[in-house]
């Protein structure tokens, strides 16, 4: 009887540990706690590099904040966008987005002030306005 109880406890403990690790991995991937929950910023600049990877696309943009002085220096911004399929469905895929394109991107900035944001909406080089998340500006 003692042996069966020990095996049962080991099994339950293993399952609980597995579930806890799985939940931590999912939570860590989808955590947006590093970003401002209500504040947005808009940058205007040039696409320097694009990563069309799942689960999120990534854009590197040489840009300035839209309200920055014209004489200010541009920074290299890292902009995390939706997955490539969502971008293509919105009308901005691999064929439309090119390094060197001028773009305007709006998103939730990092809390620590680093030039990094979660993309909520944008205006493409062709002038098309796209809203990716409900908290983005209206089109």
Describe the secondary structure blueprint for this structure:
Layout: H1 2-30, E1 41-51, E2 58-65, E3 75-80, H2 84-89, E4 102-109, E5 116-123, E6 129-131
CATH architecture of the largest domain: Beta Barrel
Helix/strand-derived category reads alpha+beta
**How many distinct beta strands?**
6
Q: At the first level of CATH, what is the class of the largest domain?
A: Mainly Beta
Q: What is the H-and-E element order? A: HEEEHEEE
The DSSP helix count reads 2
Radius of gyration: 21 Å
Mean pLDDT: 81
Strand order of the largest sheet: 1-2-3-5-4
Count of the separate structural domains: 2
* Secondary structure: helix percent: 25-40%
Low-confidence stretches: 24-28, 135-139
**Through-space gap between termini:** 68 Å
- Under CATH, the topology of the largest domain can be stated as OB fold (Dihydrolipoamide Acetyltransferase, E2P)
Oligomer: single chain
The portion of residues forming beta strands comes to 25-35%
Shape: elongated
Sketch the major β-sheet.
5 strands, mixed, barrel
What brief labels describe this structure?
five-stranded mixed beta barrel, single chain, alpha+beta, 2 domains, OB fold (Dihydrolipoamide Acetyltransferase, E2P), elongated, disordered C terminus
What does this structure look like?
- With 139 residues, the chain is α+β, with helices and mostly antiparallel strands.
- The chain folds into two domains: 1-31; 41-131, Beta Barrel (OB fold (Dihydrolipoamide Acetyltransferase, E2P)).
- It has two helices and six strands.
- The chain has a five-stranded mixed beta barrel with strand order 1-2-3-5-4.
- Strand 4 and strand 5 form a beta hairpin.
- It is elongated, with a radius of gyration of 21 Å.
